[in-house]
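thought: fold this chain, then report.
action: predict
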Amino acid sequence: MWRRALPWLLLVGLLGSSLLGGVLFGAERLDLTRALSDPESLQGVMFWKARLPRVLLAALAGGALSVVGVALQALLRNPLADPYVLGVSGGAAAGATLALVAGASAFTVVGAALVPAAALAGGLVATFVVYAIARASGDLSGTTIVLAGVIVNAIAASVITFVKTLVSAAKAQELLFWLMGFLDVPSVPQLIVCAIWVAAGTGLLLYDSGRLNLLALGKEPAAHLGVEVRRVEQRIFVASSAITGAVVSLTGLIGFVGLIVPHATRRLLGPDHRVTLPAAFILGASTLVACDLVARAAFRYLGTEPPVGAITALVGGPLFLLILQRRRAA
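observation:
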């Protein structure tokens, strides 16, 4: 019993430590006791209005991207699948960009719902284009999926670039800053709406977690065991796009979290997706909170702060190449 409980205790402890570290440390040190006892003080404002919302967004985004990575890798039976590599994040970013330029504000209640919806539409389009390209080639291998994702990402990037040329310089700079994967302090409507989208999508993925175990055997064996493969695929794609769209609408493009965390989770707890999905959410939340803390704290003496997307790319890029090399060797 303890052997089963120990990994979960470690994951929960890691999440708690990362959340506490994310709140306490940064450009300015925080007195948590003063912040909790006097919300109107400078320490209280820093905690309630700045640190806590940002840390919660980092945890939500990291967990969300990780569960999407687990689901896509299982569905496609491809260890290289993740929302960033497959172009889902790029499509969602293009959809959110069009919505923002069209006038939807992410800082109003209506805008906080419309921008993720536009990102969902973009993510769905990107997902089905990648899948259609792979199916048309008759090959759902890692190389084909990655190449299809590169194509979709390139198209999405060109759409975003074209849109940026049509807006003012100030708006273009704002979009560029957002697309780099920078975790800003979200408003309450933003955080609530994003959490609702992520909860709904994650719930759908958990509902199909047992079917993902059967799909790991292959589509034909899963169909013989009673799985309605096409419907499961559609649900997974819709849920993954909804989750990714909600996250991207707030954080921009944050890559490789959804690729690396699922591999680490499977090594820790095994391949059962009924266990791997919730565990990946916890580990992904801890990972992105820690990366954001590095982005905020490590460069403060230089008077600057890199986007957290740069930190995840620096860590995840080499690991992606390692996974690709091992897959080729196998």
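thought: worth noting. The chain has a mean pLDDT of 83.
final: tokens above.
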